[in-house]
Amino acid sequence: MTGRRVFEVRTPEVATNVTQQQINNLPQISRNFLNFAALAPGLRVREDDTERTISAGGQTAQAINVFIDGQNRKSLINDGGVAGQDDSRGTPFPQGAVQEFRVISQNFKAEYEQAGSAIITAVTRSGTNEFHGDAFVFYQDPDWIAQDEISERRGAEKAPLKRLQYGASLGGPIIQDRLHFFGAYERKDEDRISQSFLNRTEYNDFFAADLGTTSTPYEQDIFFGKLSWQINDRQRLELSAEYKTEEDIRGASGQNAPSRAARNSGENKAFNLRHQYQGDRFLNEFAIDYLQSSYEQSVINGGDYGRRYVIFRDDSPTTPGFQYNINNREATVFTAGGRADSQFLEQKSTTIRNDLTIPDLSWMGTHTIKMGAKYSMQNYFVQKDFGRNPTFTYDIEARPEINGSRTIPVSVDLGVAVPPADADNNVIGLYIQDDWQITDKLELNLGIRWDYEDNAVNNDYRTPDSIRNMLAAIQNLPSYDFPSYFNPADYISDGDRPAFKDAFQPRFGFSYDVFGDERTVLFGGAGRYYDRIGFNFAFDERFKPFQFNKTIYFSNTGGLVGGQQTVAWNPAYLTPAGLDPLLAASPGAGEVFLVKNNFEPPRTDQFNIGVRQKFGQWQTALTFAAGHTEGESAWYIANALTETGGRFNGPSPTSVGFPQFRNTIFFQNTDKERDYKAIYLTADKPYNAQDGWGFNLAYTYMDATQNGSRDNGYAAFDFDYNVPSQSPEYRSATDERHRIVASGTLGLPADFLLSGIVTLGSGLPYNVFNCPDAPAGGPNICWNAGNPEKRAFLPGLNFAYRQVDLRLTKAFEVFGGQRVEFIADAINLFNFTNYSSFEGSYTSPRFGAGTGVFTPTRSFQVGLRYSF
């Protein structure tokens, strides 16, 4: 068994190759090949009970992209970066079908698109002239998983998890030397027992019927098939197909009753047809691919109204007695009953691409020219049914100043149905790049890319007259002007919103082989990279103004209570016959969201310089990297009272005669900026059978800062500052200053193989509230200023994040060259507690204490793999 790791030392890219030997033999619990992206410097894989995300370059997961056999797998609607990965605890592609993949942390060439931080390019397996196949099964028992520290501290029972993963692959000839096939199937079954519990345990008796455990299973099936036809010595044709389906029951844990469970479903379909023609002096690659990816969240207990139990604050603590304000709520203690929201999102794309490579052109050296064009027809379908199941709110303290009861609600909420959005988008991409070998030591990589989308942000959307008239009414108020950063004319569209045409992206790189023997190589590069914004952001402009949320307030007697007009409570309102007429009489109100007409997608300017040095079998690299990102979108408040404050005190739509809209008007702002500086140090010694060992090390030092909204994802809001320029510059949420990932494989006697991954980090920052160092003029908060406490790993080595994973494999060679392997995994072997959240109040005696944990805790898994 050889794990040959090909090092392209004369490339300006900051890249890491992950081989099939590493994919097959390094320990992991979930068979998601993207987990091993963490072996590359600058990347972080974050896993929890509900999803797995990859981030890089101090940016969010949305800024990455994944290509499988050249097919773009970008998530076009949702967060997460990768289609089918957002809000999923599965894998986006069968691991057994991956031959190898490459992680490019920085300075990728002009042929790659729609990524502002890093990309991952995977190559799938193909059949050969010999039949090869394998089958595997992995099992994890509930007793093999340690309880996390937080639930143990709470006195709760351990929430069991049982996991079963199995699958097979087969490849071989159909026609010798001409036509080959490969196929793979993988399944994942999880049965997770979720716990419902109260943090306010004094109410346990009231919720006794809703507390305890419930099963929340997860199922995933993935199929992949591929035909490879060597037409002749010059032509090759490949056709591949993939189908993935998954279903996840979740949402019935923590302060949510089992009745709150929701069903999350996902489905992916992909086809990829690729043709290669090798001419006498050129290579042409033509591809047509199709990708369909859907995500659905549905309500399981839709026939059961939702129930929310809250604690109200005293609205005037200095006034004797309890002063009731129905909107002044301290906390939600518990929720039960059916959920209110469901949604269905689906992206479809048919893409035609052609790449032409012309090598060995002579002019002041040797040139390899590669150029290409892409045309993608995309469709986005979004249907959101929010608030469609009524949710009643109750006063858990049963205060006499309110209703004096835990069974008489204070309000009910319901949202009206809104038609779905069905949008088409045409995408064009053009590029040309030149790998110019000037001398046998010096090579330049020059490229430029241009991308265009004709409907990225509702370009054909016409602003409704009601919104136009409302904005004009506020603008015409004699005593008020919109703040200077918001001009309504920049957001009102007649359906001809211009598409962005200036996405030109020059990219430059160089490498210099100092001694001409590929042992010492200087390299560097700089470039501009445009990303894109998910349709989920622009969708709010179409959806929110017409998503009328109705709220009806109740009291014992009716009339003005708690600052709101109330209806006298009648138990009949707990039935559809009693509630429906009441809701029908309430008009409700939507929210105004405004997208900028001259929208520019986010862009990142990257720079790196470094040196690669070979020492015997070791390949090392030291890289200095930097990046500056502009143009991230977030929602800000347009009708603020002043330039720098009064975000909730300006004139409202209702005040100028438009009660169908809520008080706050949101507008898209793209002034958010990020800065990233990093040092990468890598050392690699590939595994080979002769030495019997291999080792890889990736160290990252990073300093990532930003301004603007602290929210991540496409639905980012900022309620703390009027515009990003008024916020301080602060550490990004992904700014882990130090991170070490070391992996290795060691051959042992008697066909044993030991492999492991050690991950150490200084930890992610957290927000500090009631912060004495908060900047003047803003909230009393220091964003991401808290540093997790570091704990001992080895004497003198302290880290906030510590994880050691090991795998032991015993191989048996059986008849006819067949092989059977018994596998044992130990994940987080020493059961280190890695906190994911912290007590952030500076005035709390528990300031800095962990309040949540990253998974996994110590977990064991056994497996069996058969191959021939």
TrEMBL record:
TonB-dependent transporter Oar-like beta-barrel domain sequence ranges: 123-196, 213-774
Keyword annotations: Cell outer membrane, Membrane, Transmembrane, Transmembrane beta strand, Transport
Compartment(s): Cell outer membrane
InterPro entries given in the database record: Beta-barrel_TonB_sf, Oar-like_b-barrel, TonB-dep_rcpt-like
Keyword Membrane applies: yes
Membrane topology label: Multi-pass membrane protein
Protein's name in the database: TonB-dependent transporter Oar-like beta-barrel domain-containing protein
Organism: Brevundimonas aurantiaca
